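Pipeline run #58 for the internal structure catalog. This entry was flagged by the ingest filter as a single-chain record with no existing model, so it goes straight to prediction. Upstream metadata was stripped on purpose; only the residue string is passed forward. Reviewer on rotation: M.T. Logging verbosity set to normal.
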Amino acid sequence: MLFNASSLVMLVPAHGLRALLPVGFDAVVDVLRNDKHASGIYFAVLNTRPRVAVAVGEEFYLMSFNRISAFIVVIEGEDATELRVITHTYPALSDLGASRSYAWEILSAVIGRLGVRPVNVVDVDYMDSSKSSQLGS
């Protein structure tokens, strides 16, 4: 963790990504459902409108010598499907960029399997609740 003296908070090794994918909700859900690193702990499609899916996964990263958790939200849109990925290394003083790498690995796996290019990608370092709005409401 890094210490930010000006705001007196610990910057945790967490990362956030948001991307719009020009494909249907079901296609994104199918890719995530079959990816053990993205959804090996928990996966559910909620009974809501618009449809929402939630996944929790984890992966061991040698460069941080730690497991990194991933929390993923998929939101059905009219013209695109929104994918949000939050990754977090804990406990760790630093993860040497592993949480960022894991978030991008998940996004890259999804777009690679779907054969699409994401649009409006938002990339948030040192993710915490004060930065949630950067990923959308």
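catalog note: The chain is about 20% helix and 40% strand.
catalog note: Residues 1-6 have pLDDT under 50 and may be disordered.
status: ready for reviewer M.T.
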